[in-house]
Fold each of these.
Amino acid sequence: MEDLGASPRRRVGLPFHPFRPRLLDCLKGYDRSTFVADLIAGITVGIVALPLAMAFAIASGLKPEAGIFTAIVGGMLISMLGGSRVQIGGPAGAFIVIVYGIIQQHGLANLMISTVMAGVLLFVMGLTRIGSLIRFIPVAIIIGFTNGIAVLIALSQVKDLLGLKIDKMPADFFHATRAIIEAIDTADAMTFSMGLACLAVIIAWPRLGTLVTSRQDGATTGRTALVTRLPGTIVALVLATAATALLNLPVETIGSRFGGIPVGLPSLTFPELSWDAARNLVAPTVTIALLGAIESLLCARVADGMIDDRHDPNQELMAQGVANFVSPFFGGMPATGTIARTTTNVRAGAKTPVAGIIHSLTLLAIVLVAAPLASNVPLAALAAILLFVAWNMGEWREFPRLRWFSPQYRTVMLSTFLLTVIIDLTVAVEMGLVLAALFFIYRVSSLTTIEQVSEASLPAGLALPPDTAAYRIFGSLFFGAVGKLETLIEADDATPPPKIMILDLQKVINIDTTGMDTLDVLRKTLARRGGTLLLCDVNDQPLSLIRRSGFLVKLGENNLQPHLPAAVARAEELRKQPSST
């Protein structure tokens, strides 16, 4: 008896999500064959992540090592603590525009503070189970801001691709476009040729591998198989770096702009936190947290489809929170789940989060051993890689397909896309959600209908008494649809209002407080005219609100009937009374 009494008390309070990383479950029964698969996948994705991490950091206005450190520290924490078996975390292309704008407006130190605060917010979102709600963001908004970010990424790389002489690239679309146009005469032919060559290699390399495979009847072996399986981005980076170093090409490199990348991880640095700084960074913090949550959970859903698994969204958000909280102290930038590296991880045969940990260790080993070689990496090659990422990132097929969708869908998607490009991602998502909510309210309200019950539709032998009207309501009586209920009591000289009104609520699935208030107004209006309101066949949710709100007391128990025939009988009884009030 004591246990039964204690159980309800344990449910009191916020439903916090338990902190249980997926790694703990995956390590049960972990064997040698699984480790070999994770080892191969981890090394593969680590090599793939190297040029992307540097490119994302440079495009964001940071030094290249910031991206590498984020992939090492943030990627390891996301794999160790996350809710997905195969997700790879690190710097993402979606953050480029956001991070660049924060640095331009608030400075590098405040980017660090914003990322730390976003980490706390992400952890709280996962702890309070908000991760399960992210999936309710309409796909039109996601496609809109994803395409918008892809356009901005491509625009940001024009400077390095052409070798333009621009001291400081503006953050907003119009000023950036103007700066490019004004500096177009400073374009460098060698830099542009390098960028185009790298882009050609990245695009053609997978097709070359397919061609070689087909010529060998699908059975590539030895060195040919190894080479054709390398990602095009790695091949382009190696070739461009080697050509720059051996031929001493006059193009800008990581060494000429940043002085190379340091060997090893940086020492811990702690920002100077202050309440005034935190207050000014609320918007950037929310933007980083929201984008990180959406990107990571979208990536995890893609991974689920590839390995036939189901991730834990709330555990994933808590892991993202820890990663973003810790990464800035090592000189890192915001981190999230990355679709390109996650899909590479899956295709390379990853089985557990151990592959993600090995990916981070691989990057660390590269930094410790081969950091000096990065000085010769041409920036045009990284620009070509980012242009390829931007192209693959965008859902460009959705634009010609818009003609098949509703005007509401088109409005939400295009508005989010244009606002992302022209103004800001935060504004774009906010306006997209507002528009989606308004269109949803409109659609649901349009589904709510009221029709008058005709004599022919009544059961045999049943007829409405004189001065009695009956209506059937379909849908939801909420704040967006109560206007249709108000029309029942509008004055009309041709058709005077009935003395007794019956509302059949059998098809009403929901009533909110606004709908309840409108019913009360209807009751009061009929009462002033000497009439009566009757309700019948009320479902559970409306009936519960009718009782809890006290409306049943005002209506009268006898004026709530179980079905339409009983309501008609009650109307006949009221009509025979001296007064129906």
Amino acid sequence: MTKRWKRLEAADEKVKQLHEVLKINTALCSILVQRGIDDFDKSKTYFRPQLNTLHDPYLMKDMDKAVKRVEQAFHQKEKILVFGDYDVDGTTSVACMYQFLCKIYEPALLEFYIPHRYREGYGISKMGIDYAAENNFTLIISLDCGIKSVDLVAYAAILGIDFIVCDHHLPDIVVPAAVAILNPKQQDCNYPFKDLCGCGVGFKLITALAQQYGIDDEEYFCYLDLVATAIAADIVPITGENRTLAYYGLERINSHPSPGIKALIELGGIQKKLSINNVVFVIAPRVNAAGRMDDAKKAVQLFIERDYNRALEIATLLHNDNSDRKEADSTITEEALIEIKSNQFLQHSKSTVVYKEHWHKGVVGIVASRLIESYYRPTVVLTKSGDVAAGSARSVVGFNLYEAIHACREYLLGYGGHFAAAGLSLLPENVDAFRLKFEEVVNSTIDPQLLIPEIVIDTAISFADIKPTFYNIIQQMEPFGPDNMRPVFIATNVSETGYSKIAKEQHIRFVLKQGNITLTGIGFNMAEKFNLLQTKKQLDIVFTIDENEWNGETTLQLKMIDLKLTEDNVPV
């Protein structure tokens, strides 16, 4: 697949000033300036984040009301239900809050509740509220959900149940009539950092309660491994407080994780220091698989379990769910690709809508993302759910998927989501009409450039720059994630040495030279580019830098992303 290369720029004067202060490679200074780190103090905060710089939780709107309502519940011996969504953010939020409340309140008066993905759906459910009423709960603390549950919170109030809503999703104009709403995205909330995940918002309530009751920091900092897991899995910006929480959460994951996280690490086969990337691709899928394939309650049970052997048993259940999930999404992806290849309309469309009644609804969102890897365009994957067709949609960077689906609402029973992802349902007999309408909308509104994947390049470097000291500074830029991605470099006028080769029919083992410096690298799934090496012409390459361990020796290597002939590369 052809890709667009986009080079980022940084103000020369700011780069020069930062270089004078930090005395590090100017290419690294350029990246820092691009990310808003343009003086010594910002650099110090970035490279050496401190937990004591976290914002006062009482800056968040309604925090005082939330703490007061929890205090009232303690005083009156009320039963409290900790309610959260079935994904990683939701289950980690519930595990943190439930464990902390058990430390300061009577565990017999506490329970947690995770809605079943298929019986109850996303967020606060009527079944959950009815369960609370039947079991005499008078306070529900909702985490990672609730900001849009206006009717359900009102229903709970009729039953004598109060709500404290802790959420991070964008509020509508009308918000629930809860006792307290903790959400930094509320327009009239003055909390300085707006991009907390659901677990992060819950952590701020825990912090406020700890302050109120004079509880030592370590009694809740011990949950930072779970907070970091939520930050990684929920793809929130790794800036500000998220960077600090993720930094110390990763430190805890690598030094003394909770038994549940430790068990997931063992089952994931990770033997080296974990990065955010490991959390996203090894820990998060196993936790999410519980809700996709079965019941997410066991994810919370895993996180709150104190006995390692028991945690390993629960983690094995999640591991098995993930194996089933991988098998399902692999099979469905294969079937969907065959469907596209055999359908002339889909072959020549600027969108993809595929539907099969037997596909597992827990993985259709993943399949949509997989299809975009082969056909880079807005994609909808549908399956049968009861009497309706339902599924998930994923977008390409820069295209407003929600607006496109909204334009097709005449064929839909329901839909919801945001710019990049959405869910929808419709009658099976309307699938073909929806496919045609969706293609019409995408075709008439999408910028053709958006149908070509874009590689964002931070800065140019030469092979002479790539030294252990350079790499060590890159490693200090961890944790990586949105708004702080691992640096992507370009090197120009590079030669192939004649020693590069195809490995396992899919990958390329590169041996490249620039000037008198030779470096090795790996390009996963890049075998189709091998013909460019055989031209013996000068190349421009895009890559990240990592380490290669072989026979007890560690060397730096290039992790190739793309390459072009120098003569064909037009600067962007």
